[in-house]
Amino acid sequence: MRSFSLRNRLALAGTLVLVIALGAVGLALNAANERGAVSSLQARMESYVYLVLAAMEVDGNGRLRMEAEFADPRLNQPSSGVYVQVQGRADRWTSPSSLGLQWPDRNDVTPGQGVFTEPARGIDFFSYIYGVGWQLSDDSIEPFTVLVLVDESEIRQQTSAFRLGLWRALGAAGVILALAQLMIFFFGFRPLRQVAGDVARVESGQSERLTGHYPRELEPLARNVNRLLETEKSNQDRIRNALDSLAHSLKTPLAVIQAGLPLHGGKSEVSMQNAVDEIRHLIGTRLQRAGTSTRRTMAEPVEVAPQLQRVIESLQKVYSHKMIEVTCTLEPCTVFYGEKRDLLELLGNLLDNAFKYGKSKVRITGGAVDPDATRPGLWLRIEDDGPGIEKTQVSLLLQRGARGDERVEGHGLGLAIVAELADAYAGELGIGHSEWGGARIDIRFPAS
Fold first, then answer.
1. Could you give the CA distance from residue 6 to residue 193 in angstroms, rounded to a whole number?
2. Residue 403 pLDDT > 50, yes or no?
3. Among 11, 213, 246, 382, which is most buried by a count of CB atoms within 10 Å?
4. Average pLDDT over residues 333-346
5. Res 390: pLDDT
6. How many alpha carbons lie under 13 Å from residue 148 in its C-beta half-sphere?
7. Distance from C-alpha of 282 to C-alpha of 289, rounded to nearest angstrom
8. 3-state DSSP call for residue 336?
């Protein structure tokens, strides 16, 4: 499972922060609007009290009398949502709008005191009750209470309309900000995508270094990567030249020693000759192993088909007397990410064994491992119709100098070299039987 890219992580985190921030702003604005609407309603309900008091008359006996019309027509319209009641000790008046209304129980308040109550369970009205002391002609005080009710739907409709508009506006703002954020990420990460593309071209062998123009922050990265690639290539060339020089330098002294052994060896000639052969073998082994260990990490791809054809043509000339029938089937664009000489040595040793031990048929198949990767791997299968390799011989044949058939000429190094090359490239080597009963060699290099 592939992990989220850095851009996707930032986009997801930015979107979550944006949603949380806009949600918090929306909730805060909605709450502030509701409190503002309720406070405005309370002030309006107080104005209804003063409106009713202005139209109220009390005679000397404490009897109420109200004007027929009010400045606010809602008090005269039944079920308008605004209702007023004036209650005295012996008299009560209700506005025409409260026709058929079931008035809730009320608590008396002292004159000059006002109590505002919001809707509660079982009560669907905002209420405001205000105490009044009316002075009669005999200077006595007659108490009255004015109760104003407003249907809660009035506030709910107002706040619902505001909430709908608010969330629509915040949603549109969120979409605009999210798109702006994605554009910022797109252009902000564009240099990184360019670096990734250039690195991919280096990995695939299409380029030897990073050549793009990058922002100031990425210039040190590109410069250091190029230095690393150049250093690796330089070290590889230097090690290879040193190994070649060492091999050339050792050839002459060993040849002189070997030539002089019959003259000066005496009885110890055989043992000394064996020691020289062992030294020659060790030098060849170590030089070969050191040579394979200098492969480049970002080696250019080598097409397998031309190198394979080159090896087959050479072996057909060497083993022309056997008339070997060769069948080669490779997937299109099969390549090897490594040193060309390593591929040639690999193919040469495997095919030499197949031609050497096969009777009349050799078959080669191959293709890419994980072809969608930047640097695909390689698998090869080489089969022959020879005597085959028994399981008990596999571990022995992978050792240098071991031979499966002493009657066939050779040094017993072929499979050992192939195993060392496979190990150098983190590959796998498998040995089995072909459908003809001969040997089947499978080698697989993973994608990198």
1. 11
2. no
3. 382
4. 87
5. 81
6. 23
7. 10
8. strand
Contacts 24+ apart (CB under 8 A), 27-34: 29/166, 30/159, 30/162, 30/163, 30/166, 33/159, 33/162, 33/163, 33/166, 34/155, 34/159
Q: How far apart are CA 60 and CA 328, in angstroms?
A: 126
Length of the chain (residues): 448
The conformational region for residue 408 under phi > 0 = left, psi -120 to 50 = alpha, else beta, is beta
Tokens 């990058």 -> residue? 214
Question: 3-state DSSP call for residue 400?
Answer: coil
Q: Which residues of 80-98 are buried (b: 16+ CB within 10 A; e: fewer)?
A: bebbbbbbbeeeebbbebb
Residue 145: pLDDT above 70? yes
Three-state secondary structure readout of 216-274 = CCCHHHHHHHHHHHHHHHHHHHHHHHHHHHHHHHHHHHHHHHHHHHHHHCHHHHHHHHH
> Between helices 219-264 and 190-203, what is the axis angle to 10°?
20
Instruction: Return the closest-CA partner of residue 52 out of 128, 146, 136.
Output: 146
Query: With contact defined as beta carbons under 8 Å apart, do 338 and 295 qualify?
Result: yes
Q: How confident is the model at residue 169 (pLDDT cuts 50, 70, 90)?
A: very high
- Choose among 104, 105, 87, 84: nearest CA to 95: 84
- How many other C-beta atoms can be found within 10 angstroms of the C-beta atom of residue 324? 21
351-374 pLDDT per residue, tens: 998 998 899 999 999 999 988 887
**Closest to 342 in 3D by CA, of 442, 420, 398, 429:** 420
Residue 68: per-residue pLDDT: 62
Residue 171 has pLDDT above 80, yes or no: yes
Q: Residue 441 belongs to what H/E stretch? A: strand 439-445
Residue whose tokens read 């791809």: 301
State the Cα–Cα distance between residues 231 and 435, nearest whole angstrom.
48
